Amino acid sequence: MNAGDRLPPLEIPITRTLIVAGAIASRDYQDVHHDPDLAREKGSPDIFMNILTTNGLVGRYITDHFGPRAVLRRVAIRLGAPNHPGDTMVLTGTVEQVDGDTATVRVVGANGIGTHVTGTVTVRVPA
Prior knowledge:
The protein is an alpha+beta fold and 127 residues long. It has a single domain, classed as Hotdog Thioesterase (Thiol Ester Dehydrase, Chain A). The chain is built from 3 helices and 5 strands; from the N terminus they run E-H-H-H-E-E-E-E. It is elongated and about 50 Å long. Belongs to the enoyl-CoA hydratase/isomerase family.
């Protein structure tokens, strides 16, 4: 791994099941993550993904690329445009810095309405 390396994009279909399952798995019972009518009452066109699901998908993106020995040391993300059912999020990444067996990767996830997530992940990849 070298600074400037680009990770291949990962396309993730955003399904209603993914959104609801992620919310349930992370014990986030906010109605905007599972009830379309209540989400609309609160101004959203539909349910939307929670940050913990997004965080998990960002982690998966990194470990899928760097392999089963990869250890996530730090994940720092910020949400933007929501992920709604029927869209696709495309994750991309660029290695910003390498120090021995540890890399810092800039990650961006975009969907049909804009940038859903931006952040950095520090990953250690033991030899």
